[in-house]
Design goal:
The mean pLDDT is 97. With 411 residues, this protein is an alpha/beta fold. It is built from nine helices and 28 strands. It has helices spanning 10-19, 31-34, 64-67, 162-170, 209-220, 234-242, 263-269, 304-322, 376-379; strands at 26-30, 43-44, 54-55, 59-62, 76-84, 98-102, 114-117, 121-124, 127-130, 140-141, 152-154, 175-179, 183-189, 193-194, 205-206, 223-230, 248-252, 273-277, 281-282, 288-292, 295-300, 331-336, 340-341, 347-357, 361-366, 383-387, 392-393, 398-403. Helix 5 (209-220) runs parallel beside helix 8 and helix 6 packs across helix 7 (263-269). The protein is 19% helix and 31% strand. Bound molecules: adenosine monophosphate and magnesium ion. Magnesium ion (MG) is lined by residues 189-190, 232, 253-254, 302.
Length: 411
Amino acid sequence: MSDRLPMISVEEALQIIKDNIPAPTARDCSLEDAIGRYLAEDVLAPEPSPRYTNSAMDGYGVRWEDVCDAAPNSPAVLTIVGESQAGVPFTGSVRQGVAIRISTGAMLATGCDTVVRVEDTEERSDIVSILAVKKKGQDVRFLGEEFQKGDLLLHKRTKISAPQAALLTSVGITRMRVYTPCRVAVLVTGSELVTAGESIAAHQIRDSNMIMLQTAIQETGGALADCLRISDDEQATQEAIGGTEADIILCTGGVSVGKHDHVKDAAEANGFCPLFWRIRQKPGKPLYFARKGATLLFGLPGNPVSAFMCFAHYVRPVITALNGLPFGWPTVSGEVAADITNQEKRTNMIRVQLTWRPHGGYCITHAEKQGSHMLTSLSEADGYIILGPGQALKTGERSDVYRYDFRREPV
Ligand code: AMP
Ligand code: MG
């Protein structure tokens, strides 16, 4: 069935994918389970911060009227009547002419409105001399000065990383609603493949696609489902696809026109409807895309570079969209260091390096060896640029670079 599908452009392929992405789903979960996920709701502050007025310094809690004229040659002399420690507040009140010792984070006592840090004082047998003071309320953290109850703390679609986890915990939030990450299965096909670490015969290849895609899926924010390696066998391929439970199935290899390429037939025998096969691009021309209900299947080419490029440009934005984010890529603009021309008749995704120049922004250089079997063209690159057939960029011209850093959100 898919053999009759026309070869399409990059833009057409992206549109077909966008048209077939299911709506993202969300779930309530604990903070621990929400780490690395994206909020599916705005989070409002259930309480103010700080929760109580407290000291920003180790020092003395005082009344402004008592100390406002203090200077090194005419200190204000106060009697120390107690202490407010972090976790052990002073329960009395600070009246005229007295002070309390206070530590950072400790609650201010009634009557005291100003903190004088230790460095600006001298203490001798429960008497403190205040030598310098700047203003009323100095070194005090006031209740609600950061945010009030009901203020917006975190926007929907914010990723829960270390700072957000700390913020939520600080206001007592332990459960939240996040987008459910999509489950992505990886089915690697190829009778020539062995696992790294196994003995390898002269005619065999180490399977590098499995670890590459597993890593890329997790970095993008997807969850790994079944991960299998199968030989170039029609029955085995059909069973592997049929037995997989995932939102997205990624197959690699076996998607071209070879006698031993079974992915397309196996997908269609399982009820997948082919949506496109082959894109006018390099690398990654034989990309296959099919759908069965809400399950999407990508038949990525076997060549690791082609598989990776197809993941980066077509699969990654789907995983991102299912995390509630825009369908897109993290890009950055830079200036090309030397002329780059696409000599091909197809759109070319050219792998490039980015170098930061302190006052000149990013400079784009072009990796020389671009073969689709050459993994160094990826490992030494920071991203790729896209040039249409015959399109050229002159030295100094600007271009967008699609970054490989999958942990970055699309812009
Ligand atoms: P195919 O798309 O199955 O025709 O494979 C194209 C090329 O990619 C062949 O040279 C394969 O040996 C190679 N290849 C396929 N799968 C993998 C893999 N998982 N890891 C490394 N190379 C692969
Ligand atoms: Mg193969």
